[in-house]
Amino acid sequence: MTATSPPRDTRRSAVYDAEDVVGRVLERGGTIEHYGSTLVLPGLRRFGDVADVPAYLDRVLAFAPVAALPRAGIPVAVRERRGARAAHYEPAGEAGPTIAVPPYRAGGAWALTETTVLHELAHHLCPDRPPHGPAFLAHLLHLYEHVIGPEAAHLLRVALAERGVTTGAPL
């Protein structure tokens, strides 16, 4: 019997690119015109450092639209990640499921944002493969919709569509 390799994560760069575009728009916040619609966007939330993330995640996971998701009751730890190039999710970290975020002092300011933390939380809520597939994106859009706001979710949907990325059915 031969082992099968996991599905390729062919959408990863397109998903990251779409999130970067939306993150830059949220950094400014305020009122924007988008394809003929006027949207009022919140500003991008930032964390002072990694120690601020667990309390935020606790609030998000307790929020009714998120708490209703099947894996929302599974605790997720947060730890500092060495190096500043990436944040990531570990389904089986030392403390159980863990989100690893680079600290501010190591150049992690870029990762200490609500959008990055929600991205990693979406991996926790949807461990399906491939990692940035339709089911993951449905969870990410659910988080954007209910935590940041429907306008932010709309921007992400459009940015994904512009890059040819299809998403899963709404949760």
UniProtKB/TrEMBL annotation:
Top-level taxon in the UniProt lineage: Bacteria
InterPro entries: CHP04338
Name this protein carries in UniProt: TIGR04338 family metallohydrolase
